[in-house]
């Protein structure tokens, strides 16, 4: 193997990458070869990750702490895995899942097949879990609607004299500015409250 690279990722700038960083260092990745993104894992157009792909050469090794650090979409992960291992002819090792280690050449084609199969299973499970979550959400929303529960953001509490002022404004007896001043509402708030009132 020529070079050892490490890749770490968290979903937002507020999250900490120390745990991944130290795990990669312990696994033998030189500090200069650790690439870190603080970005969502839904897609792969990430600055550090794209820079990493340019540097990886045949027989290099990419180490990640877990497969979801590479991304959240397992179908795309599978594409990236094949791109790195087949097109770039490099290796990948996943620290928390030793079976996902293409450096295990003793298994030869069997090792490659096992890695591919594990990724396919993970892809299926991830998709199934996501579909189940969406189905449960839809069912929960439907049950809430049937029970007459209000969904979404809580409705703004109206000023006690809103209805009276609203009717006068609607009838043209007062201007919108006068209505806002009487109710003590800012322009954006006034029109939002009016819209919510009209839609209710």
CATH architectural label of the largest domain: 3-Layer(aba) Sandwich
The coarse overall form would be elongated
Examine the coordinates and then state which fold CATH places here, giving the name of the CATH topology of the largest domain: Rossmann fold
Report the uncertain regions.
none
Rg, alpha carbons: 27 Å
**Structural class assignment:** alpha/beta
Number of strands: 4
Order of helices and strands: EHEHEHHEHHHH
For the biggest β-sheet, the strand order reads 2-1-3-4
Give a short account of the largest sheet.
4 strands, parallel
Strand content: 5-15%
CATH class of the largest domain equals Alpha Beta
Span of the ends, CA to CA: 66 Å
Tell me the number of structural domains: 2
Estimate the mean pLDDT confidence. Answer: 81
What is the tally of helical segments? 8
Helicity, as a percent range? 40-55%
Give a structural overview.
With about 200 residues, this protein is an alpha/beta fold. The chain folds into 2 domains: about 120 residues, Rossmann fold (3-Layer(aba) Sandwich), CATH 3.40.50; about 40 residues. It has 8 helices and 4 strands. Strands 2-1-3-4 form a 4-stranded parallel beta sheet, with helices on both faces. Helix 1 links the parallel strand 1 and strand 2.
Topology, pairings included?
Blueprint (H helix, E strand, L loop, with lengths): L3 E7 L7 H9 L7 E5 L8 H9 L5 E4 L2 H4 L3 H14 L3 E4 L14 H38 L15 H9 L5 H8 L3 H13 L1
Parallel strand pairs: 1-2, 1-3, 3-4
Helix pairs in contact: 4-5, 6-7
């Amino acid at each position: 193997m020529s070079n050892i690279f490490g890749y770490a990722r968290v979903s937002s700038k507020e999250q900490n990458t120390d745990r991944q960083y130290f795990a990669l260092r312990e696994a033998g990745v030189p500090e200069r070869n650790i690439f870190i993104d603080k970005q969502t894992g839904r897609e792969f157009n990430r600055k550090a990750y794209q820079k990493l792909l340019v540097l990886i050469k045949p027989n290099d090794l990419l180490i990640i702490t877990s497969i979801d650090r590479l991304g959240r979409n397992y179908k795309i992960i599978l594409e990236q895995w094949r791109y790195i291992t087949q097109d770039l002819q490099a290796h990948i090792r996943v620290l928390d899942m030793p079976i996902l280690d293409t450096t295990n050449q003793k298994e030869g084609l069997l090792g490659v097949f096992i890695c591919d199969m594990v990724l396919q299973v993970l892809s299926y499970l991830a998709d199934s879990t996501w579909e189940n979550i969406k189905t449960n959400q839809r069912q929960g929303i439907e049950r809430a609607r049937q029970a007459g529960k209000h969904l979404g953001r809580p409705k703004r509490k109206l000023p006690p004299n809103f209805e009276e002022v609203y009717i006068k404004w609607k009838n043209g007896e007062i201007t919108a500015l006068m209505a806002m001043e009487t109710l003590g509402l800012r322009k954006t708030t006034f029109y939002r409250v009016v819209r919510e009132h009209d839609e209710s």
